[in-house]
């Protein structure tokens, strides 16, 4: 049995409203299935499960606001349920969909009748009767709650996101002693490689420069783990390399979805993931896994005239890598002056967690990796 | 505009006596027979003075032979009389049970509808006078089980005053249960009511939160409990079944449909009781109206003990009714 708790969708999230359950007790779920919708400051987010199993009682009610870590339901393995059923001496559970109730919801006949008439899911009603039985009063209460307007904040989604960004960035500048490093990279190798690659790809699958850049950052972090970390009561290195990628919204504000295990993904897979999450972010249809567990952030302002970005770290991370635009610049190589497409890469790092030398090693490594894009 | 209801205060005993007197006055075919009903004035003085008033032909002392005199009463009824047979207490009724169950109850059926048996059999009943196990029975369920009988239970002064007169109009055998423990209890009897029915249960107090369904000695106890419940905001409806056979299902169902909760109260022991039947009817007819399990407060499953405190502990008391009703309504 696994406890399923309200996930942390970003380290700055403290609580969320449960807006919808997509499952009911006894439902069989697979890893990755969406079981609920919650509303955070970042909008409505689909919550996925990470284990196969059978859903237990739903412990959080619709429109209830609960803190991160609150037990929402329990997920039982098929084996556990079978053992349970065998113990009680009943027939074996059919394999496809075991029609079992892990706990029978006691409800009075009248309560059941009213619930059926009004379309109330009894598994979401808290019983106050004898032995926790659901009475008419309990159902009536839910009916009233559902017919009265929802207790939502009066703020718009945009205002909520703005507030979330404000809180995280204030905390960052208040608590994190940033240091900034910067380097220039000749991108001609990467761009040539991309041109070759894209010849073999359909329009939809074409790679953008950001994909090899993300992959290179991920590879560099394997060597420099001190930057792939959180600062929470000291340095906590993270085993997975989950790269948060800043996506700006058309309505204003930013959201930072994660590309999980970027070091293990190919450049093509990274591009695919990126396309996928950016479209979900822009339509505010995020999943819980999109928002959790980032270990470092990348921000890219390559579209405009900006050459260098001095980033603000997203706490509790300890580093942020930033890309400006790629511009043609005079470039000295082998004693000759030429014109090359040049990218300015910035690093903002937490001086509590690392020193300039760490950052220097990281940027140097990154620069070298980008010289051999075919090996990424 | 009807005149305001007027009433007089009477003891339960006096109300029963006045109804006997009215019955004897109204119809020459009516006579009373039973052990000690004449010269002694009745074991509980219910018929005191009637021998002097109506004479030995109509107030008839009989030998101590329940089977014999109940059989004689049935015979008289078959031959056009309207006998009121008093069995001193329900405890002795078993000696007449064969006459009641095998003759009175069956003859209409067995004669193909030719023979009505318009006999009224009264018996004192119940516990509460420290008469020990053999003299404290509550056997209403026993008689309510038998097809062919009408079984009435007199739980109020109004019914004590008027129910007998209605029973005598029945063409078929009627068993009337009176309650020894209530004989000295004084109560209001409306003087503007001249008759009562013998068909329906009666709502003795209206309420919306719970139906307390009872009969006999349970009626006043339940009303007292309802008054106490009202003080904590629980409005109990009290239903006096009155007719234990055939049960007035409609009144029960209407009340439970309104209150959605039911507590059944009776002195007879719980297993195979009138409450068992009422509970089953509620399940059958209005299960989907129930907001809580139907609960019963009945007699304890023991031969009734002699000591007062143990006797009291054997039957539902007001305090228990209040406690259980509160539990059903307020869940505490």
UniProtKB/TrEMBL annotation, chain A:
Domain Lipoyl-binding, first and last residues per copy: 1-79
GO terms for MF: acetyltransferase activity; lipoic acid binding
Residue ranges constituting the Peripheral subunit-binding (PSBD) domain according to the UniProt record: 106-143
Cofactor(s) required for function per UniProt: (R)-lipoate
Keyword annotations: Acyltransferase, Lipoyl, Transferase
Pfam families registered for this protein in UniProt: 2-oxoacid_dh, Biotin_lipoyl, E3_binding
Superkingdom of origin organism: Bacteria
PROSITE patterns assigned: BIOTINYL_LIPOYL, LIPOYL, PSBD
Protein EC: 2.3.1.-
InterPro entries (alphabetical): 2-oxoA_DH_lipoyl-BS, 2-oxoacid_DH_actylTfrase, 2-oxoacid_DH_E2_comp, Biotin_lipoyl, CAT-like_dom_sf, E3-bd_dom_sf, PSBD, Single_hybrid_motif
GO cellular component term of the entry, any: cytoplasm
Assembly mode: Forms a 24-polypeptide structural core with octahedral symmetry.
PANTHER family recorded: DIHYDROLIPOAMIDE ACETYLTRANSFERASE COMPONENT OF PYRUVATE DEHYDROGENASE COMPLEX, LIPOAMIDE ACYLTRANSFERASE COMPONENT OF BRANCHED-CHAIN ALPHA-KETO ACID DEHYDROGENASE COMPLEX, MITOCHONDRIAL
Sequence similarity: Belongs to the 2-oxoacid dehydrogenase family.
Annotated protein name in UniProt: Dihydrolipoamide acetyltransferase component of pyruvate dehydrogenase complex
């Amino acid at each position: 049995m696994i406890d399923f708790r309200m996930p942390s969708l970003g380290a700055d999230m403290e609580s969320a409203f449960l807006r919808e359950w997509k499952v009911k007790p006894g439902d069989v779920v697979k890893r990755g299935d969406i079981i609920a919708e919650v509303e955070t400051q970042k909008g409505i987010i689909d919550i996925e499960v990470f284990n196969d199993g059978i859903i237990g009682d739903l412990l959080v009610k619709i429109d209830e606001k609960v803190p991160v870590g609150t037990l929402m339901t329990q997920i039982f393995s098929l084996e556990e349920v079978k053992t349970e059923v065998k113990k009680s001496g009943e027939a074996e559970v059919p394999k496809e969909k075991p029609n079992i109730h892990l706990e029978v919801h006691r409800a009075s006949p009248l309560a059941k009748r009213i619930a059926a008439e009004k379309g109330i899911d009894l598994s979401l009603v808290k019983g106050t009767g004898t032995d926790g039985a659901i009475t008419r009063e309990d159902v009536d209460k839910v009916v009233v709650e559902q017919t009265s307007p929802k207790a939502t904040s009066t703020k718009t989604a945009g205002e909520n996101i703005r507030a979330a960004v404000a809180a995280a960035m204030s905390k960052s500048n208040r608590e994190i002693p940033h240091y900034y490093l910067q380097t220039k990279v000749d991108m001609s190798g990467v761009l040539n490689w991309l041109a070759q690659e894209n010849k073999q790809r359909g329009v939809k699958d074409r790679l953008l420069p950001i994909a090899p850049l993300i992959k290179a950052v991920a590879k560099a972090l394997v060597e420099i783990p001190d930057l792939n970390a959180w600062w929470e009561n000291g340095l906590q290195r993270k085993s997975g390399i989950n790269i948060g990628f800043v996506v700006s919204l058309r309505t204003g504000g930013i959201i930072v979805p994660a590309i999980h295990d970027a070091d293990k993904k190919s450049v093509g897979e990274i591009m695919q993931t990126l396309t996928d999450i950016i479209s979900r972010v822009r339509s505010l249809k995020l999943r819980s896994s999109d928002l959790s567990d980032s270990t470092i952030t990348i921000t890219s302002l390559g579209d405009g005239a900006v050459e260098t970005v001095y980033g603000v770290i997203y706490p509790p991370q300890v580093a942020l890598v930033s890309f400006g635009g790629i511009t043609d610049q005079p470039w000295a190589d082998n004693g000759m002056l030429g014109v090359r497409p040049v990218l300015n890469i910035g690093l903002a790092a937490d001086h509590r967690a690392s020193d300039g030398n760490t950052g220097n090693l990281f940027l140097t490594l990154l620069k070298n990796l980008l010289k051999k894009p075919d090996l990424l | 505009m009807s005149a305001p209801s007027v009433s007089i205060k009477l003891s339960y005993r006096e109300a029963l006596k006045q109804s006997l007197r009215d019955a004897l006055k109204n119809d020459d075919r009516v006579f009373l027979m039973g052990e000690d009903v004449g010269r002694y004035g009745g074991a509980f003085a219910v018929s005191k003075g009637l021998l002097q008033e109506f004479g030995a032909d109509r107030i008839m002392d009989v030998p101590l032979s329940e089977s014999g005199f109940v059989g004689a009463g049935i015979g008289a009824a078959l031959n056009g009389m309207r006998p009121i047979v008093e069995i001193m207490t329900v405890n002795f009724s078993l000696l007449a049970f064969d006459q009641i169950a095998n003759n009175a109850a069956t003859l209409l059926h067995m004669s193909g509808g030719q023979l009505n048996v318009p006999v009224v059999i009264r018996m004192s009943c119940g516990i509460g006078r420290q008469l020990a196990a053999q003299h404290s029975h509550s056997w209403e369920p026993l008689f309510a089980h038998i097809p062919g009988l009408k079984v009435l239970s007199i739980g109020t002064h109004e019914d004590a005053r008027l129910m007998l007169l209605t029973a005598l109009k029945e063409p078929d055998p009627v068993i009337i249960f009176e309650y020894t423990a209530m004989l000295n209890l004084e109560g209001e009897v409306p003087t503007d009511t001249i008759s009562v029915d013998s068909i329906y249960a009666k709502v003795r107090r209206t309420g919306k939160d719970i139906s307390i369904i009872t009969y006999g000695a349970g009626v006043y106890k339940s009303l007292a409990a309802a008054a106490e419940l009202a003080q904590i905001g629980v409005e109990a409806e009290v239903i006096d079944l009155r007719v234990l056979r055939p049960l007035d299902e409609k009144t029960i169902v209407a009340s439970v449909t309104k209150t959605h909760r039911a507590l059944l109260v009776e002195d007879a022991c719980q297993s195979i009781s009138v409450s068992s039947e009422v509970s089953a009817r509620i399940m059958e007819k209005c299960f989907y109206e129930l907001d809580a399990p139907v609960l019963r407060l009945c007699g304890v499953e023991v031969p009734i003990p002699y000591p007062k405190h143990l006797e009291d502990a054997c039957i539902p008391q007001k305090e228990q009714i209040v406690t259980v009703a509160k539990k059903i309504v307020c869940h505490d």
